[in-house]
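Annotated sample (chain length 182).
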Amino acid sequence: MKAGTQISLRTLATDNVDQMVTVANDKRIADTLRDIFPHPCNRSDAEGYILFVMSQNPIMNLGICYDDELVGVCGGNALDDVHKYTAEVGYWLGLDYWGKGIASVAVTQLIEHYFTHTPFIRLQANVFSNNLASERVLIKNGFVKEGIMRKYVYKNGEYLDTPLYALFKEDWSQLTDSRKAY
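Output written by the structure step:
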């Protein structure tokens, strides 16, 4: 990441539709995500997603901005019933922004958002076993591998294991406090 670069999260708006189509339209991104993520991603797909996000209360999904340019999305889904204090999180970046540390910073900011502005006490994430970069993002942010769900997803003609990672609010608070001590 170049010096002076700003990474931030912001609420998505309808004026982000064209940017989202541009940055999301690569099959290699869709290959790392659930099938609900469209490829190709067209204007209608992006607009529908953004309108859905804008209707959330609380806002669960945020745009990842790199020097004020939308480069991806991070967020999650609130689980329900007996899991109501757990959110499943995920993230994606446009291909040009992979390997620059942007996802790690964005996930740090997402964790802070969730643990300070929502009732969640647990965040969890499943990643495809062939997405080691995404696993590194979670580990850098204090997530702990709880196990591996074998052949849990079927993507692009193959069964993949999915490691399950989790982070608890109290563990995050301790990590945050220990970082402030330095």
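Annotation: The chain has one domain: 7-180.
Annotation: The first strand starts at residue 7 and ends at 10.
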